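User: Hey, quick favor. My workstation is busy. Could you predict this chain's structure for me?
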Amino acid sequence: MKNRLLVVALLGMVLSTTSCATMFTGTRDKITFNSVPEGAKVLHKGVEKCTTPCTVPISRGLGKQMITIEKEGYSSEEFKLKKNFNPVTLLNILVGGAIGVGIDAATGSLTKYSPKAYSVTLEETKTEENK
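Assistant: No problem, here it is.
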């Protein structure tokens, strides 16, 4: 009876710690965007997220995450958010195994965004009036 209880307790502990990175660090990171001049739109996947200066949660993902910052009268800037390996995922390798790593991969929690702040300087576009 004691052995069964021990097995059930260990199984419960292992299952509760799978997908550690997803549980402990979530599936989003708050990213700050600044621009010169201020008041530019921040677009992620073609959807306006905020107007600079701002901080917005961005979902993690294994794919390339592109951001566009645009303001009327200025050239837009597009850049890729940089990511690093999320070290909390190592807990899955030690405790949770393939199931936990698979969940972290599916939610994008294998990585985290770094840096958490981006600043861009937009260049004024030349018009017939400015030439």
